[in-house]
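Pasting as-is:
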Amino acid sequence: MFDKIEGLLARYQELEEKLSDADIVKDQKKYKELMQEHSYLQEVAEADKKYKKTTAQIEEAKVIAQEEKDAQLKEMAKEEIKSLEEEQEKLLANLKQLLIPPDPLDMKNIIMEIRAGTGGDEAALFAANLYRMYSKFAELKKWKIEILSSNEIGLGGFKEVIFSVTGKNVYENLRYESGVHRVQRVPETESQGRVHTSAVTVAVLPEAEETDIEINQDDLKVDVYRSSGPGGQSVNTTDSAVRITHIPTGLVVTCQDEKSQIKNKAKALRVLRARLYEIEEDKKQKERAEARKTQVGSGDRSERIRTYNFPQNRLTDHRINLTLYKLELIMEGDLNETVETLKFSAKEKLLQKI
């Protein structure tokens, strides 16, 4: 462990010199990356300094406790050793935590995609319930939500809804929501009172900035067409809907929520950029295969991660064996316990590797 810390401190000194280099400062993307790394390593350096200082104080107190003739001073030294050793233990635990470098993606905003899976209209209704749940959670966190694209059904459900969430450390808190969310409840349309099981797929994509992903305009095929479905007076009367095809990957993004073709194109490009960024990050994750094994979940959208059982007022997260009997509150945005437990579990698994 201490060898790793010494390695991090050496890197910290290296960065101190690099960040004063004029050529590095000119490259804004590189400079931003190095500044983030420097900020993390500075925290490690300060924690290490406190640990070493406390260790030195313990050694000094031990010398006094052994050599001092005055009984009162000897006892005071022993008390100080006890207090300092407790402090040393806390500082060591903090240092160990700091050995897990922060994921640069954690600070990013996200684009979340919720799609109805098996279960027909009931799945679409639950997709709307999940959108509301995340909206309420975002409200509690003082984050901002913006719908980028949606496909509604007449009953108030969503076949699909894509939206952005912006705020502090959004990806860090919502990254483990990707996967299949299963719901068990009696649908409103069920006359016999039978419990049905439906599924909804959630994808959480870190939102890419223009400096993260460069999109060549020659790689895009942009089609415009008339909007369809529920909407205002201009729906079906103007070619405001936009479909963008990224030719190299075959990715297709559509947006028709806005009356303005320009706004729809801008929103569609945000979604496309996030999906391309996800592809790049997946490649990096595969290169860091060992680190991926320590995560709570792989982020695979086909992985069943959670069950919402309404008759029992129960939420079960299958990855961490968490069961909470307060589903009613959770659907109102009370996600904090679930989110924090997932984050803690992921960190604990990473610590086991240290």
